[in-house]
Task: inverse folding
């Protein structure tokens, strides 16, 4: 039937369920025609009618993501704020790990990252805590290209420092208590990369934090360092966490890319 | 040895174990680390009393002994048990060994 049907209302023939068309059918709402639905619409995909542009709503409209719902972004989101989570690790298994990896969290999308490290506990009391870059997966970048300096202000009013020159990793805490009650260690690190620089691989960091040492003494820390490798075959892509002598018992880490 | 990657805890491969062991073999011993910490504390405490050595200040014999005793720490305290005593602290975090007691 190709003729036009005009009616003010369509209703199911019986009950409350009605079906429009069959699989493979196409219903077209022409340009200039509005389609208003005042209740829930369920569909698996919404795409632009033509081209690549799609606009949701108008100025003043509000879209709400209810509690418990997830709004997942696997592409590029702009205008959503300055920090975009690129990865995280939560290690608290009851069994220690010699190396903990947070892989593939640095991309060409961002040059600056915020790394939040919290509740770090070593297995060995008083062990030092370190990190180094990885390229992809668990491929560590461990050449002697890490320079760093740390200054610690101690709870008893004294201070100390730790430095590394042409080291194979950064060390951000000299000694961390393995007693949860002592407070462990927490750090906030800003990491700057230029992964698009093809002349070499670089990565800088600076940050602050605190840790309780093997004697239970608390320290505040200011730390910074720079990694530079003249070769261009291993761009920093992630992080490897490790202790100097023993295993890591606990660590939680989140990495955010900073939108420019 | 264990590796935590991709949010999974697994056994380290032989290659990973060799890397970890090689790196740890380069670490200073526990006693060496403690002696380094002691030397850092000593340096700070010596610096705190350096002004007594100025020409217009008289350094007491007690202060001279205090400073000399700290300089003699590596000679007079030579094993890890002695280092532990030097690094011992009370519940307030204060070092308890008599060598740190400033006159």
Result:
């Amino acid at each position: 039937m190709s003729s036009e049907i005009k009616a003010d209302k369509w209703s199911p023939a019986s009950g409350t369920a009605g079906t429009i068309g069959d699989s493979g059918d196409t219903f077209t709402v022409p340009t200039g025609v509005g389609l208003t639905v005042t209740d829930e619409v369920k569909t698996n995909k919404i795409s632009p009618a033509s081209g690549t542009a799609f606009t949701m709503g108008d100025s003043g409209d509000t879209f709400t993501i209810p509690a418990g719902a997830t709004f997942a972004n696997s592409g590029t989101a702009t205008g959503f704020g300055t920090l975009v989570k690129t990865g995280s690790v939560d290690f608290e298994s009851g069994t220690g790990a010699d190396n903990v990896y947070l892989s593939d969290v640095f991309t060409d999308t961002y040059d600056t990252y915020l790394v939040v490290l919290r509740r770090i506990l070593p297995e060995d009391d008083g062990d030092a805590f370190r990190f180094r870059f990885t390229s992809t997966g668990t491929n560590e970048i461990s050449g002697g290209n890490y320079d760093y300096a740390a200054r610690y202000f101690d709870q008893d009013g004294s201070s100390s420092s730790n430095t590394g020159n042409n080291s194979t990793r950064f060390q951000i805490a000299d000694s961390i208590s393995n007693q949860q009650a002592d407070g462990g260690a927490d750090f906030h690190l800003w990491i700057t990369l230029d992964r698009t620089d093809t002349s070499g691989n670089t990565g800088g960091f600076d940050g602050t934090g605190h840790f309780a040492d093997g004697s239970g003494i608390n320290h505040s820390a200011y730390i910074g360092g720079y990694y530079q490798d003249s070769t261009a075959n291993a761009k920093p892509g992630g992080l490897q966490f490790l202790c100097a002598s023993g295993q890591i018992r606990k660590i939680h880490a989140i990495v955010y890319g900073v939108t420019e | 040895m264990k590796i935590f990657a991709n949010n999974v805890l697994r056994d380290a491969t032989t290659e990973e174990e060799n890397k970890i062991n090689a790196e740890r073999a380069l670490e200073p011993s526990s006693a060496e680390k403690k002696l380094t910490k002691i030397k850092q504390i000593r340096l700070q405490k010596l610096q705190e009393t350096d002004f007594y050595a100025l020409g217009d200040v008289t350094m007491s014999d007690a202060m001279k002994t205090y400073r000399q005793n700290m300089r003699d720490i590596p000679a007079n305290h030579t094993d890890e048990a002695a280092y532990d005593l030097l690094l011992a602290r009370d519940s307030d975090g204060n070092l308890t060994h008599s060598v740190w007691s400033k006159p």
